[in-house]
Amino acid sequence: MAFYFIDYENLNKKGLESIETLTIKDRVFIFYSTNANTLTFELHEKLMAAKCKVEYIKVEVGSKNALDFQLTCLLGYRMPSPARKKKYCIVSNDNGYAVLKNFWETQGFNVSVVSDLLGNVQKDKEEELRSKVAAVIGEPADADKVVKFILQYKTKQGLNNALMKEYKDSKKCGEIYNAIKPLIADKKGN
User: Fold this and answer.
1) What's the pLDDT tens digit per position in 7-27?
2) Phi first, then psi: what are they for 178, rounded to 5°?
3) Contact residues for 66 (Cβ-Cβ < 8 A; gap 6+)
4) What's the chain's Rg over C-alpha atoms?
5) What is the C-alpha to C-alpha distance for residues 111 and 82, in angstroms, rounded to an integer?
6) Does the model's pTM come out above 0.85?
7) Helix, strand or coil for residue 119?
8) Where do the H-state alpha helices sit in the chain?
């Protein structure tokens, strides 16, 4: 049995990919807010067909990290002392959850922070992205900066603006942006 706490604001539909692999014993808590409250029909169908129990938790917004705090509270509430053998997964790319994971591990609980329901870890994904970026832009020295921007900005426009600010040379910025375009196809915008 595993409990999955989905930071939907952070991951959106990517956090729920592979939900069909979960079992009837698993529980999924989807934390969403007015900042992230839409599902595609395809994802809705997957959620309806999933064997696991799914709960939707609309969180109050208005302060920084509001969703994170509410997710953290429910995680603690769901961890009764005799259940130390259960698996608890926070599904998010938010690095702030690492402190929470470390705390619960010192208490004897099995808590992990993963990027998806298959248990992939964000660091692995970042390293994979870094190697892809370095391969397409051809300059490993710039790859770290570009990866940082890709991870930081949710829209193509935000990413492009950050590249323009960093490189100032519109020709170089355009070359980098065009090279990484296939890697950012999932970002919002044109």
Assistant:
1) 998 887 888 888 999 999 999
2) -65, -35
3) 33, 59, 60
4) 18
5) 15
6) no
7) coil
8) 8-11, 41-49, 66-77, 97-106, 122-137, 140-152, 156-167, 170-180
The CB density around residue 39, as the number of other CB atoms within 10 Å, is 17
Q: Are 91 and 7 in contact (CB under 8 A)?
A: yes
* Residue given tokens 């915008």 in the structure block: 189
Indicate the residue type of 4.
Y
pLDDT tens digits for range 109-148: 889 999 888 887 666 677 788 888 989 988 777 888 888 8
d(CA 29, CA 52): 10
Q: Answer whether 89's CB lies under 8 Å from 60's CB.
A: no
Report the sign of the C-alpha dihedral through residues 58, 59, 61, 64, in that order: negative
163 CB-contact burial (10 Å; exposed 0-12 / middle 13-18 / buried 19+): buried
Question: Alpha-carbon distance 11 to 115, whole Å?
Answer: 8
